């Protein structure tokens, strides 16, 4: 058996050789990772994490080479108590010029609070499934789009950048299988409203290579891949495969949560997002540039796992932490 003494030598072997680009030629050469750990990752945590810990967490993420970090949400504190300290978190973090710090906003009430806090970028969210929309935002899918229009009208006046999410793009915990056409319609609606990018959320992680492929192909009939991002929860362990499928179709923005944190309280049984450490390891192995320092990321993953008192859900973190830091 070959024993590899250092993780970096292993990484070199994985990333070796330009010849890889021959079988890898459909992959983009670089991707942007949108770290959603502080928002999607923490929103499901039952015990409120101190605000200073959240701020420290985000500041540490800012040192890893990530270019986008979704830091909190301005949703109703009755619905998501963990995000009630949104203003303190947003105003408390150190903001770097080359990093965007979007926040999730569900309605104009939330937008107004976000504006007071000084946000520059927001993310709005709609659902491809009727029942999830009602459970998550207390309105129908169409009412959700109408609400987003009101948000966008105000946000544009303040020159905010607006990212969009569509949830349940392949499956819904209440409605089951979701037809690609429902997703395509929602994507087009959000793009027409002025979102610069739509993140396709496999909220409960039920997607497989086939369903993800079919869904994105349908969207690509009317939309360019540069307007898309992929957001995979890893409930069924399919996230990396599904992300590869999206990459092969030209998508080059990927959402993830360090340490695999997360889930949506209104999507029963859903676990966290794909772990950012696992994603970065895979991408570097594919010779896809991320700009992210894996070692620093692993340290941050360990920091937040310790803070919430839970073992990491990242396989790469579990494998490499002691090699890097003991
Ligand atoms: P509602 O109860 O229907 O709201 O909730 P309402 O408009 O009837 O207002 C009721 C009260 O809430 C009022 O106060 C409002 O002012 C207040 P009162 O008069 O009773 O004192 N209120 C607010 N307070 C603070 N901030 C606000 C806000 N809005 C109203 N923004 C609402 C409707 C949309 C607000 C609620 O359903 C909500 O906040 N939902 C968000 C749930 C959530 O955050 N889910 C997780 C994020 S989505 C996700 O994780 C999926 C994603 O990751 C992609 C994927 O994985 O698929 C993005
Ligand atoms: Mg999510």
Average pLDDT metric: 93
Distance between the termini: 24 Å
Bound heterogens, unique: 3-hydroxy-3-methylglutaryl-coenzyme A, magnesium ion
Shape estimate: globular
Largest sheet: 9 strands, parallel
The CATH homology group name = Aldolase class I
Which class of secondary structure composition applies to the elements?
alpha/beta
- Structural Rg: 19 Å
CATH class: Alpha Beta
The strand count comes to 11
The total count of helices amounts to 14
How many distinct folded domains?
A: 1
Q: Runs with pLDDT <50, length 5+? A: 1-19
Order of helices and strands: HHEHHEEHEHEHHEEEHEHEHEHHH
Strand content: 5-15%
Give the name of the CATH architecture.
Alpha-Beta Barrel
CATH topological fold name: TIM Barrel
Q: In which range does the helix fraction lie?
A: 40-55%
Order of strands in the sheet with most strands: 2-1-11-10-9-6-5-4-3
3D architecture notes:
The structure is a single chain. Helix 4 crosses helix 5 and helix 4 (51-61) runs antiparallel to helix 13 (294-307). Helices cover 43% and strands 13% of the residues. The protein has a single domain, classed as TIM Barrel. The chain is an alpha/beta fold. The protein has a nine-stranded parallel β-sheet. Strands 7-8 form a two-stranded antiparallel sheet. The protein has helices at residues 7-14, 20-23, 37-41, 51-61, 86-92, 108-117, 130-137, 141-157, 180-193, 209-220, 239-248, 276-285, 294-307, 315-325; strands spanning 32-35, 68-69, 72-73, 103-104, 121-127, 161-167, 171-172, 176-177, 197-202, 228-232, 253-256. It has 14 helices and eleven strands. The radius of gyration is 19 Å and the shape is globular. 3-hydroxy-3-methylglutaryl-coenzyme A (HMG) is lined by residues 40, 43, 73-77, 79-80, 104, 106-107, 109-110, 125, 136-138, 165, 167, 201, 203, 231, 233, 264, 266.
């Amino acid at each position: 058996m070959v024993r590899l003494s250092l993780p970096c030598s292993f990484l070199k072997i994985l990333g070796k050789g330009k010849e890889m680009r021959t079988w890898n030629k459909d992959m983009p050469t670089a991707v942007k990772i949108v770290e959603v750990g502080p928002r999607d990752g923490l929103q499901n945590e039952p015990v409120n994490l101190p605000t200073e810990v959240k701020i420290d967490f985000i500041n540490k993420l800012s040192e890893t080479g990530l270019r986008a970090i979704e830091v909190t949400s301005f949703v109703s504190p009755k619905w998501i108590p963990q995000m009630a300290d949104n203003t303190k978190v947003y105003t408390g973090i150190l903001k770097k010029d080359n990093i965007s710090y979007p926040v999730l906003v569900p309605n104009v009430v939330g937008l107004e609070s976000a504006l007071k806090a000084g946000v520059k970028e927001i993310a709005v969210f709609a659902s491809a499934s009727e029942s999830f929309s009602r459970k998550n935002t207390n309105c129908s899918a169409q009412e959700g789009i109408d609400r987003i229009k009101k948000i966008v009208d105000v946000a544009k006046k303040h020159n905010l950048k607006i990212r969009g999410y569509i949830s349940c793009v392949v499956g819904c915990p209440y409605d089951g299988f979701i037809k690609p056409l429902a997703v395509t319609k929602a994507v087009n609606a959000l793009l027409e409203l002025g979102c610069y990018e739509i993140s396709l959320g496999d909220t409960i992680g039920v997607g497989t290579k086939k369903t993800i492929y079919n869904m994105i192909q349908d969207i690509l009939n009317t939309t360019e891949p540069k307007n898309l991002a992929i957001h995979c929860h890893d409930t069924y362990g399919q996230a990396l495969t599904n992300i590869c499928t999206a990459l092969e179709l030209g998508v080059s923005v990927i959402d993830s949560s360090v340490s695999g944190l997360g889930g949506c309280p209104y999507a029963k049984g859903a676990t966290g997002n794909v772990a950012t450490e696992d994603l970065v390891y895979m991408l570097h192995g594919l010779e896809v540039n991320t700009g992210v320092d894996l070692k620093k990321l692993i340290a941050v993953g360990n920091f937040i796992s310790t803070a919430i008192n839970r073992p990491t859900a990242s396989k790469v973190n579990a494998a490499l932490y002691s090699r890097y830091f003991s």
